[in-house]
Amino acid sequence: MKTTALSAILIGIVIMAITSCNKIDGYLDRQPVGGLSDLQVFSDYNQTEKYVAGLYARIQYRNEWWPSDEGDNKTFALANASDESICSVQYPSGPHIFTQGTVNASNNPLDRWLELYNSIRAVNLFFQKIHLLIPVNTTQQNNKSRMMGEAYFLRAYYYMELFKRYGGVPLLDQVMSVGDSLNIPRNTADETASFIARDCDKAAEYLPASYSAIDLGRATKGAALMLKAKALLQNASLLHNPEQKADKWLAAANAAKAVMDLNVYEVDNDYAGLFHKRVAKNIIFQSNLNQTNWVHYNFVPSLGGQARVQPLQNLVDAYEMRATGLPIEEDPAYDGVNDPYSGRDPRFYQTIIYDGAQFKGNTILTYLNAPGGNDIQRWGGDRRTQTGFYLRKTVDETGSITPNAIAGDHFWVFMRYEETLLIYAEAMNEYSASPDATVYDAVNKVRLRVDMPALPEGLSKEQMRKRIRNERRVELAFEGQRFWDIRRWRIGAETMTVARGVIIDGTSNPRKHWDNVVENRVYRPAFDLFPIPQSEINKSAALKQNPDYQ
Amino acid sequence: MGQLLPLLNQQKQCCLRKLYYVMKISVIILGLVMVSTSLLVAKEARTQSLDETRVTLALKGSTLKAAFAAIEQQTPYRFMYNSDQVNAHLLLNYTAKNKVLRQVLQDLLKASHYQFLQTDNTLLIKPEPEKKTAPTIADTPIKMADNVVITGVVSDDQGKPIPGVSVLLKGTLNGVITDANGAFSISLPDMKGVLVFSMIGYGKQEIAVDGRLVVTVQLKAEAGSLGEVVILGFGQKQSKIAQTGSISSVGSKELKQSPTANLTNALAGRLPGLVTMQRGGEPGNDAAMLFIRGRATFNGGSPLVTIDGIQKDYSAITLLDVNEIESVTILKDASATALYGVKGANGVVIVTTKRGANRKPEMSMTVETAFQNPVSIPKFLDSYNYALLANEAYLNDNPNSTPLYSNEALEAYKTGSNPLRYPNVDWFDEAMKTGVQKRLNFNLTGGSPIARYFINVGYVNQDGVYRAEKNNLYDPNANFKRYNFRSNVDIDFNKDFTVGLSLYGAIEDKRNPNYDDAGIFWTLLQVPPNYAPVKWPGIGLYGQGNDVLNPLWLVNESGYAQSFNSSLSGMLTATHKLDFITKGLSVKGNYSFDGYFRNSLVRWARSRTAKYNNGYFEDPGSYTYFYDDLPLQAPSSTYTQSRDVWLDMSLNYDRSYGDHNIIALLLANRTQKVTGNAVPYVSQGLVGRLVYNYKQKYFAEINGSYNGTDNFARHNRYGFFPAISAGYLVSKEAFMREIPAISMLKIRGSYGQVGSDQFAGRRWPFISEYNATAGYVFGETLSNGIGGIGEGAMANPDITWEVSTKSNIGLELGLWDNMLSLKADYFMEKRSNILINRNTVPGIIGASGSNLPAVNWGKVNNHGYELELNHRNKIGAVNYFLNTNFTFARNKVIFIDEAPTAYPWQAYTGRPIGQQYGLTAIGFFQSQDDIDKSPTQFGKVIPGDIKYADLNNDGVIDNNDEGVIGRSNSPEIFYGISGGINWKNFDISFLLQGSGISYRPIMWTGMWEFFQGGKVADLHLGRWTPETAATATYPALHYGASANNFRSSTFYLDNTSYLRLKNVEIGYTFRKVSLNKHRELSSVRLYANGVNLYTWTRARLYDPENYSGYGAVYPPTRVINFGLSVNF
User: Per-residue pLDDT tens for A489-512?
Assistant: First the structure.
């Protein structure tokens, strides 16, 4: 009985399995789910806000300003690839790729072509889908408008990052698919700058001038206008304006003026507090991400840090004498051998740790064979200073590594009002035959707030250009600006020749300071623009490489 | 039941009702048989012979059947007969009082012309042979009268009768062939002589008659012999001679010779066509990667693993105890794997576990202790030589500076006069010890005709090789324990219905320092000998130096991690013969589940380290301290679990019509895999197989499967994968008999398609989706965090499976009675439809790499051959064998949607999977002049640095000069040579295993001198200096960084070919060891064996199987093992 029944059941199952195919096939219906559909995202207000938060997150995708262990780009910092500093160690794909001239189309640790186009696609997708969002109340209506402005701002931001790197790039304002023809040539620099400027103008229409505390960190009208000024300044600079067309400079000056005319921002005399606070009247656009590893990477070794950014004598020499406002080579009071660190621009003391400086209650010694601690110069050694200097600016002195790890506050500042003033000054000076009062006024606002004397009257356009460039270098040191300024001014061949440090003889009293070459550098004019990645050139016949890369 | 069948035929109109009766009666009858037999089994005792056993019977008008029943009650014997041949209802009258059983039987059967044959406790009743029809191998009629008739049964080592065995009186043409029940009856002139039993595929046996009337014989299908039964897909078996596909198999005896905890490491070199690569030796995490016939896809080349016919998770194979394994078979060509359809393209590994057989219980116990040491530890220099080279390197980089180490320091390092201030620590020596591994096994197997069983309990306890110190809170020593349990039981409910239940469980406990092996070995490779002492004796803290961490501090003071894995598996198998429908038909079902549960916990701890400044070593003020004392922290734990379910139902048909033999299978199966946080993975399919042979000479097979998985969109779910194959046993032809040297010759070939639904990455590439991404935090107090969401991967609704088109030609040759046998296979595989990412879409689309819709465009070709040459012989009392196998498999990427490269040497298309790339080193710069005249290289170049070839002749060495160097990272040649000798009770065997044509880049810590504060090894002594310019084997040294030398190039490319003495075993077996008068042990075996005993290779620093060339890996271990096994 049992066996009969069993046999019948077994056979029955087999027959069922073979015959009733429709039911059988249903077994494989697994309701594929991997996430949301576009409708689910963009027809939902909260999901759309998340989408926009995701667009902001792309700003942070990789930070060239902060040395880190991320990927292969160990210890990379834009400062280390410029004439501001040198890196403590030489890992593959470190900043020495730039300083030793080995950048090429297949090897560029700072290449962000793919990542930036990904971000641009994300914004374009927002524009393509945002019509799906139907606000149900005025708050949502206002916020939808804000999101539109943020999207325009962010697209402009990502194109600006491309513009700085590669010059004119293919301008896409819609979502492309695999089937579309993607063999698209590059737009010109002018077209790229105008595209950015247009997006910034649209963003400014949508965006408020400021936010309540809960939304601090979002793009504002001021940020959009400032970004426009930066793009137009970039396009007016020698790199993209070899004929020095005045109207380009005027456009840049006007864009900066528009920010000044908002009357929202003011200079801030707390130079040391920059990067360590979130509310200040000079901040235009700031990262909300606290870089908690900055202490670890940049503290002096005697306090457990790795000192991956080691300032160069090249930069130290740029700090003027405070009493006279004169460059060191013009001020007879400067004694570079016996007493180089007295009476300098106050920003020097807030930017650089030098031999004998105080840091966290310790006297930091960097002279040759200094006793005790790690801070003895030892050439070629890991993490100790090769230059005789350590970085203070951007590093929160309240942080610590041992005995207790305290990360401190490190919020990167993308744009601040002092830069607005310097953009205005630079553009206006270049536009004019000789600097007018507005130029002096802009630069002096920056100087006076840190107790530096005003610029002397009667400077020529060229003299003023020199002072403005030096002011930019000093004021914005280690803020990721110099690397790009070198390129747009096309001054790499002069400034990127040799990286200098100091050797200090501690046996004499006072100690003697001697210049010391820490790296012979290679810079070719081609480096003013990045190469487009070779892999992209291979894929697209219409994409033309920047000059002198192959 | 047989005699009832005619009744059934007469009344077909009510056959269902009759079927019911038939079944009912057979249930009752067979139920009785089962009960009586189980009683008999229960009183299993020492068997008395027929002549010693006495019975008392008083039968009047009784049946033969009742007589048998009465005898069965009084003796341990039981009767078997075919009711078609023996009428058990024959009436008889008979009395016997305490009469010898043999006589009783002869009396009972004499009248009815039946005879009996004895096998152990079984008495087979059958008609007396009709003498004229007794088959003979010679045409000469044999005179039967006056001769002695010897009877007997021939069975295999599983106790199953073998039909068709030739039984020949040695030296004559007098011979017979066994019948369907394995029984024979041969007429001999006297009671002397030797009977020769032979059968293709089984070892020949000669047995002296020696006055016996009944001779029972067990023939062994020896591993490697052609008569072996091979296991095919879905639990099907086939005699190897009938095999037309390409398969290889290894038995438990060989596997047991490798005392490794992980089965995959015992497979190396044993199976032609199988490539194994063991990357690491961490206890519990030392599985080898397996590739069958190399690789032919970019999407993981792992073969499918099945255990007892059931598809398993790939990791399941690593959980098995070698003692529970009957055999491991690999299926290689399309014919063998087509049954696996959409899963079989990478080949199939079939593990069969042991099952019971109809024979008396055998119990076996094994105890083993092994000693393990890492196979290859690089030889590093001591402090003195380190400091010398450091000075040299430093001066190379900074020509005008003072050396790093003063003469005073050098002297101190040399003499060891001040080991605290000038330490000289051999860190590997300090951190490594011999690990002990213990293994215990107990298993029991046996059965009656009704129930058969195999039970196994195994235990492995493997220590790590870190020299860790147990402290009062925890033990940071690495340790791995595994407990295995198995019970395989098969029960015949009646002669038609069999049920099997296989239960399996494994528990793993793993403990290691709370710092991963990669980190510990990286640190060990890096930390210089003069870093610091291991511990400061004065203050008892671990030493701290520059740049690197103290590896012993990491091992001992970082806490510990534990993981607890359990896996549980159960399989129910039911088979029912459907002979009442048509003879040879049966239905079979399997239901199986596997559960995996993994728990792990981590407990952090840390202690202070001290770095010496100056002063007295006993004075705590002389040190700077690092880190905090962090007591052992509360555990943080994680767990995962998954469950696999398998269900199949099959109809099997196996029947012969004269010379036509047919086997057929139709199987339907379903799988379900449930893992955490995912919709269950499912698949289902139909499998068909039709095997035909004519006269066991011409063979043909059709295999096919129709499979569906949920990985693909509805319209693409199902695929059909067919294969055909054929074989021709040439040696069966009459004309071949004239070449006596050739005992076997077979040619075979196969062609077919198999699929693969394996691909990395997304579960459902046929749909697009928006996923969670990084978000952003707004607000002055960072209180307004918003999680991000963004576009995910794009969809390709046409995603489908990979297709592998395979063809195979094979030749099998046996010479001189198979004393020498050769097997050769040539195979070709074209893999198409490989799922790849688009590589030619410009990046401005804004979706790169894996976010672009994947397409089934990839193509790879793979081809190669396998050779197997086996020799076995017996000279006097010495048996010996020598087996070799050789595999060559070479693949080539045909299409991978590669954008045109700037230079041909950069292309991947046309190269093997895993191709290495780098610069071509053409020697060392001999002088500054040489440098000046050569193309610009990288950074500051000094004489002695590596000089590279300028492939594009542009005067600059850069990425454009990086091209293909060497070949792939997985070997194209793989071979094994095994041999052994048996002499009386003594045996010795060995296995040499090797691989060839594979390359690895070797770089970073360990290889690059002083890299990141690291140390230097012996090989750096061969550095270039102006004095040694002519003989240098290593470039000029740099202190920690060299933009020019430290990059991928042929100089830092290792040829990882190797030859390894993989295995040696020496053993001695004592047979029939008496414990007392009544008990004896059937055998006691003492043995010693070892794994990875010696390696010949040119690969530098690390074990050649470490294909990454990156030393931060727990190395494989050399194992020396001592064992004792006892069989009861």
Answer: 999 999 999 999 998 888 888 899
